[in-house]
Amino acid sequence: MQVTLKILRYNPEKDAQPHYERYTLDAEPTDRILDVLEKIKAHEDGTLTFRRSCAHGICGSCAMRINGRNRLACKTLLQTLDTSKEITVEPILGLPRVKDLVVDMTTFFDNYKKVMPYFVNDEPLPEDGRERLQSPEERERFDDTTKCILCGACTTACPTFWADNSYVGPSAIVNAHRFIFDSRDRAAAERLKILAGESGVFRCRTAFNCTEACPREIDITKAIAEVKRAIITGRLD
Amino acid sequence: MSFKTASEGYVKYQGLGNWAFVLHRLTGLGVILFLAIHVVDTAFVYFAPDLYKEAIALYRSPLFGLGEILLVLSIIYHGLNGLRVIYFDMVNPNMWTIEINRKSVIWTWIITLVLWLPAAVVMGSHILEHLGG
Predict the structure, then answer these.
(1) What average pLDDT does this structure show over A207-223?
(2) What is the ipTM of this complex?
(3) Class of domain B13-132
(4) Of B118, B114, B24, B37, nearest to B75 (Cα)?
(5) Are B21 and A207 inside 8 Å of each other by CB?
(6) Architecture of the domain spanning A106-233
(7) How many angstroms away from the CA of A124 is the closest CA of chain B?
(8) Chain A contact for B20 (CB, 8 A cutoff)
(9) What stretch of H or E contains A89?
């Protein structure tokens, strides 16, 4: 079948403004958007620039706006889209464009670092000197938020982040949630203090775009609401 | 990032949640605009009674009548959607799943229309009466 991609192109060395270019080519319904981008780069225009790495939905490199929604190009099959119309492919929104579909993720990772996304526990190890145990129920409490691959699809779908990227964003909150509700961690209070600040969870307007965008199907809005409640009630249940 | 980026997202980003959010913002701005105008025109009663009479005459024009019908829509939607978000966020975060959220957005629109339509009919017929008289 034939498919047409309308791609937002931008070369900072040549273009004053980004512009759309259209590419029509043969493709299979089981091809992914990433496969089509690869074909365009190989056969039509070698200057087309995008990030990719694993191509299996785990590295988080190829988040982009496909038909107006954030998705991973490597997880979006053509047969799930309406191929009778043009498919629009644009870079994720809210971060500076570098070239074509590549954006500068520095702010995204700076926000991630703000919430201490690492395990904190300075207490002595258990007597056997081995691992700190927790029950399956305690592990289950934060299971959902361990799935994040830091692709940025959620944060760059967030209306608050579009307007002001000092807001830590859904992804940073998800990664904070992963440690806040971990029974072995000891820095929950510190993280909740950071997230109670003016760049924290209360900037969330519950538009739900993050949850819809997440390629890992994390219930992000729920995680944010749980952090909000933990701040308000002071409890981690 | 900026007003421009946010506007692009408001207009172009797809999804029921985004549309519910953008509509919430627009209706909120509409209600604030009305409140600002209302505070100013009511202040005229004391400071400039003649201007107040002029303002009231202006409000009786069909254009303002249509604006008032939209104002009722804005208040109903903004209020209902606000309650929906507060309930999910503060009372029952377990309901924040994609399916329930989509359904709740559609139900909010249906209830808004059901509450607004009778008001719109009554207010619309008043406008027509004024035009006829």
Answers:
(1) 96
(2) 0.88
(3) mainly alpha
(4) B24
(5) yes
(6) Orthogonal Bundle (1.10)
(7) 36
(8) yes
(9) strand A87-90
